[in-house]
Design a protein that fits this description.
By secondary structure, the protein is an all-alpha fold. It has one domain (about 1-185). It has 10 helices and no strands. Helix 1 (about 1-15) runs parallel beside helix 5, helix 4 packs antiparallel against helix 5 (about 75-90) and helix 7 runs antiparallel to helix 8. The longest helix has 22 residues, at about 50-70. The chain is globular.
Amino acid sequence: MKSVFIFFSYLLGSIPMGVIISSLIDGEDIRKVGSGNIGATNVYRVHGKKAGILTLIADALKGLLPTLAVLLGLSPAWVCTIGLAAFLGHLFPIFLQFKGGKGVATALGVFLVIAPLPLLISIGVFVFLVYKFRYVSLASLSAAAVMPLLIGLLSAPDKKAHIIFAFIIALLIFFKHKENIKRLLNGEELKI
């Protein structure tokens, strides 16, 4: 039964909401415009605020829904595994030949279920850095980096799985942002 949840969580995570929303707006493939990323930031830059927010919400729901569905019935480790499957679906979607987004919004959905207070503080870090420096990538990386620490400080001792999950998520977000990191270091990253 758990493997079925993992499979469907991955499939849900694989649905490329940015591609779908972008194509509904103008028939264009979001992967061929702007930064080429399927996530909310690129959709925002190409199609505007409403489309970007809709993509953010849709991508977050991909992480939130499967995690919430198993929250009360499974151990913290299994809940994190289901959330990780959705996250990996967004990063490596079967529907796009395993070339997906960076996962920040999908991770947000999972953390909303398993660690709401640490997530709220992490969102504060994100908002502050976007406001101060206007780099979404820098804010995303910073928010991902503080999540394992915040979960460790603010969660119950029996939530070790959540800390490990947050650390894995942070590593994968950094991996998917490697080009952004290079541009940040070279002063070439686009501001929002």
